[in-house]
Amino acid sequence: MWLKPEEVLLKNALKLWVTQKSSCYFILQRRRGHGEGSGRFTGRLVGALDAVLDSNARVAPFRILLQVPGSQVYSPIACGATLEEINQHWEWLEQNLLHTLSVFDNKEDIASFVKGKIKALIAEETRSKLAEQEEEPEKFREALVKFEARFNFPEAEKLITYYSCCCWKGRVPRQGWLYLSINHLCFYSFFLGKELKLIVPWVDVQKLERTCNVFMTDTIRITTQNKERDFSMFLNLDEVFKIMEQLADVTLRRLLDNEIFELDPDLQEPTQITKRDLEARAQNEFFRAFFRLPRKEKLHEVVDCSLWTPFSRCHTVGRMFASDSYVCFASKEDGCCNVVLPLREVVSIEKMEDTSLLPNPIIISIRSKMAFQFIELKDRESLVENLLMRLKQVHANSVAHYKTLRNEDTTSALFQSTSMCNDSNFGTLKMSPNGNKVDKESSPLPNSEALIAVFHQSGIQSPDSRMSREQIKASLWSDHFVEYGRTVCMFRTEKIRKLVAMGIPESLRGKLWLLFSDAVTDLASHPGYYGNLVEESMGKCCLVTEEIERDLHRSLPEHPAFQNETGIAALRRVLTAYAHRNPKIGYCQSMNILTSVLLLYAKEEEAFWLLVAVCERMLPDYFNHRVIGAQVDQSVFEELIRERLPELAEHMKDLSTLASISLSWFLTLFLSIMPLESAVNVVDCFFYDGIKAIFQLGLAVLEANAMELCGSKDDGQALMILSRFLDHVKNEESPGLPVGNHHTFFSDDQEPFPVTEIADLIRDSYEKFGDQSVELIEHMRCKHRIRVLQGHEDTTKQNVLRVVIPEVSILPEDLEELYDLFKREHMISCYWEQTSPAFQHHDPNRPYAEQYLIDAQQFTNLYKLVSPWTCGAHTEILAERTFRLLDENMDHLIAFKGFAICLDVMYNGEMNEKIKLLYRLHLPPALTENDKDSQSPLKNPLLSTSRPLVFGKSNGDTIDYQKQLKQMLKDLAKEKDKTEKELPKMSQREFIQFCKTLYSMFHEDPEENDLYQAIATVTTLLLQIGEVGQRSSSSGSCSDEYMEDIQTEGSASTSDQDSVFTDVGKMPQRYSQALTMTEGDWTVSLEHILASLLTEQSLVNFFEKPLDIKSKLENAKINQYSLKTNEMSRQISLAPQLLLNFLK
């Protein structure tokens, strides 16, 4: 165990301790007399001295000391009762600390760092022990308080767990605490007087991997868009990495892949997720992937045990997995023996007498007169009780009735499990006879037999030898069934894998596919389900059915089964029924090819349930809009190529070329690029081994063509090499006619290409690449799913920027930063507001520009952070008006493009564009009757018309200036004629709000006083224009008249009238009449406002001065989180008051 470092003098302990190992900074010592064969007396003497001299009579026989070179003071940092225990601590120090200490410059820093690290490890060990005893709440609460204080997150940011570790900053490690919450990875360190805080949202993580650096052999590296961060020196790095992996996977899929991803029930509410939930999810994911079970299955118990295997006449060590509807067994030795027992197959679960030879045994009996004996089960009583409870529930929910179909042929009877037979009537395995063609008119719907039986054709060359091979295979399978079982509950061993690799006989293929995929259980559990789906879905016309109709005649057109209406109609029914069952998937290309092959070897209803098993269990997320699952497996395949075929990877620097070629291998299970009679053998392996079979076969194909691929010059040549090879993969043992394909690249006059036998290719794939475990593949999938999802996010971002960049003058790099802020604002609401409209409207299937939308409150937050038009308390009002203006479709959401264009006008627009935007912000729909500030009366003296306007210019310049202004008005009128739509005139109420906004915008500006005087002048002028315009509305535009009036009055003014204001008593009578006019009679246009503003140079300078968006973006990145946190805190504090007001 680790010890709190306390200083000791080594010279006082020389006689009691013997040094076993030493390094530059650490010493491992053994207690004198301990472990010495002839040292009994010495050991007793030292023990007696310990009892006398030490307050603790029992001293651990091993310890590790920290020694700083040149110092006589040492610090014990670890002790152990056994050599094995102390060696584990020594190895940890060597791997995590020893090489790191060389980066420090002085001894004090070394001692301080090591002591701090050891203290953190002690706290970590204590926390782990408390967690095991479930006495953790107090410690966790203490960590939670620190987490909230240090990072200032809202309460909704649930802390999952925390660890002591080091974060590397360059070559220097920073000791601190790593906090893992539902949405963020956070690190805090206060070391050598310096504070370090890191916040990394999980949605920003682009890569999560275990790696090593110059100083550390094992670190966790977090890669985001701009940085890589290494974390090391964990007490249990495996545990930390698994929790990180789960958190990243759950959060990214919840926020970025909500198209098809469904969380486990325990993870539906993020604020309720715990560390234990994540660990359970990881175990659930592995369980479902390993046994290829439905996603709804929830794992309840995992128990070490041994299973009696009659074929080996011994008990096989392994683990039992018990879920809602299954009891499964996996041997400790990979591939030795696996068993899947659906509870609907189980008849009884009984405890046997406990003996020394059979400790804690139970017997599970199934309907096929087989029994499975498990022994060495811990907590047997509780396990059996839970199993019986779930067994009762499964049988109570079962709607299937077990029947004895004695009239069925013996081949079918062999495979009837819960579906429709009593397995007591087993017969001898025989080949099913070739079926005769059934007249389409008399054929029942759906088809009651596999199409291969109806449209079977024997091979032309050596039919007898081919059939004899089939019979030999069938005989081997018959012998296997007798020894290992013949239902879904059969013992699955290496022997059955070899039989599958040889190719399943055609007469058994469809039935074995049902058993290996466990689609037979779904079939038995849902009697009549498929028929009802067909009735409900047929005859309906929609986009999906149109796509299905378009692809029907492209599905195996070379096979006779799909050259007439029988096969086409069956394919239509299955695809349409599945699209009706699962609208999230609907129909995807390549489903037609797969389904057509399933129909060849299985009855129509069986083919439907096989399709369900493939799409929903065996190839998850493959068949959807973005084919995320297929892309993830392509990324995994690339990594496998680098690991297993390094020479090929070295030659082909960009493996994405191979990935694009191999995509169809995965989507169609080689059916679209290999002759059918060969590809069905691949499908055999897939149904038995899952996606692992496709990975290893793909590697075998690449290895067989590695030399040619290394010599290829371009992608086209590589495609041709692989296509030609796969086109010549033959199956000489196939009993049917070879079915032609459309992938031949060479004409008949070229020399023949060597043929590869499919059985040899599959055997090579198992021998050379069959060591990839399900656990490894699932781990790689989790790792690469992050990369694929972030790749989609990057694609979305680049497409949005490509559309927006031509529309704005903001620099591309600044626009990219703005997009990141926009997306982060969307994400922040998703983190802490599950009912946010943005969260509900995020859809990856939408056009790129509409995938991320923000609502009014999110827009307001962003506006405060990045807009140059800040107006103090008025800012929020202006932001709300801007949002209403941009929300053209009135759905209360806006996309990035509208936001960026609006912001571009504020920063880079010409003065007339900025004024036009401000003008529109004070007209409906931006300004509403219920606007927070729209009801305020006109009280500000700066807006009074009782002070006539006098231009502060000399008389000589005034005439020329008025001519210039008149010309500008004419130019604006011409420009207005060219515009598509004329903006409505502004009423006096709207104009008052417009002036208030301008007045607020000048607050804290360096030229604040000049701007206030200028806006007062302009406001007075515009009020007078509105009055004159109302009186002269019958005669058209009054601008020229009014300017002449202004000129006359201005020239009559005395030279000492430089002020913008004069005495009220001197105001002309006709100006003062404006005060008595009603608001409805008063209007002013955009042209009048713009022309008036142009009369004041300070206002022109204000609107035309260059604005720096970079500094705003930098500040926004820093303050975005705190602004949201403060907003949520304010809402929480106001909630009680709102409740009281409501109750009143």
UniProtKB/TrEMBL annotation:
<feature type="compositionally biased region" description="Polar residues">
    <location>
        <begin position="1048"/>
        <end position="1059"/>
    </location>
</feature>
<comment type="function">
    <text>May act as a GTPase-activating protein for Rab family protein(s).</text>
</comment>
<keyword id="KW-0343">GTPase activation</keyword>
<dbReference type="InterPro" id="IPR004182">
    <property type="entry name" value="GRAM"/>
</dbReference>
<dbReference type="GO" id="GO:0003008">
    <property type="term" value="P:system process"/>
</dbReference>
<feature type="coiled-coil region">
    <location>
        <begin position="962"/>
        <end position="989"/>
    </location>
</feature>
<dbReference type="Pfam" id="PF00566">
    <property type="entry name" value="RabGAP-TBC"/>
</dbReference>
<dbReference type="InterPro" id="IPR036009">
    <property type="entry name" value="TBC1D8_PH-GRAM1"/>
</dbReference>
<dbReference type="InterPro" id="IPR036016">
    <property type="entry name" value="TBC1D8_PH-GRAM2"/>
</dbReference>
<feature type="region of interest" description="Disordered">
    <location>
        <begin position="1030"/>
        <end position="1059"/>
    </location>
</feature>
<dbReference type="InterPro" id="IPR011992">
    <property type="entry name" value="EF-hand-dom_pair"/>
</dbReference>
<protein>
    <recommendedName>
        <fullName>TBC1 domain family member 8</fullName>
    </recommendedName>
</protein>
<dbReference type="InterPro" id="IPR011993">
    <property type="entry name" value="PH-like_dom_sf"/>
</dbReference>
<dbReference type="GO" id="GO:0005096">
    <property type="term" value="F:GTPase activator activity"/>
</dbReference>
<dbReference type="InterPro" id="IPR035969">
    <property type="entry name" value="Rab-GAP_TBC_sf"/>
</dbReference>
<dbReference type="InterPro" id="IPR000195">
    <property type="entry name" value="Rab-GAP-TBC_dom"/>
</dbReference>
<feature type="domain" description="Rab-GAP TBC">
    <location>
        <begin position="503"/>
        <end position="690"/>
    </location>
</feature>
<keyword id="KW-0677">Repeat</keyword>
<keyword id="KW-0175">Coiled coil</keyword>
<dbReference type="Pfam" id="PF02893">
    <property type="entry name" value="GRAM"/>
</dbReference>
